[in-house]
Amino acid sequence: MAVEVLEHTAEVGLRASAESLEVLLGELAVGLFGLITDPGTVQERETWSVEVQAEDLTALVVEWLNELLFLHARDGMLARRCVVHEAGPQRLQATVWGERFDPDRHPRGIEVKSATYHQARVEQSGGSWTAVVYLDV
Known about the structure:
This protein is of the alpha+beta class. The chain has a single domain (3-136), classed as 3-Layer(bab) Sandwich (Archease, Possible Chaperone, Chain: A, domain 1). Helices cover 26% and strands 43% of the residues. It has two helices and eight strands, in the order ββαβαβββββ. The chain has helices spanning 21-36, 57-75, and strands at 3-8, 11-18, 46-53, 77-87, 91-100, 114-115, 121-125, 128-136. α1 (21-36) runs parallel beside α2 (57-75). The longest helix has 19 residues, at 57-75. The mean pLDDT is 94.
């Protein structure tokens, strides 16, 4: 798994690294839903198109995860796979494949309330990207 879970008081953090910003954002999405349920139980039955805008790159990452949490709350969406088609410092477009939560098939993991700006960061160094985001649980 390319995403590492970080322990923190009343929060849990995700640290991800990838060769591009688009892959990094996809890894964070899959890591987020890996906290919510066992990703091995999620099938690609539906798709969601997601577009997010923000003031800067760090805000974009936080708002991306919060938009996914909104879709989870509204639709019961569980992401199995995510492809970010376009990502820049203020905008991203993505497609998420997954299905709606089914308590008979999807074990409950951590209830994630929101992604926070607390110690959030996105960095590019050489040929790779790294992000750290803490989630309020």
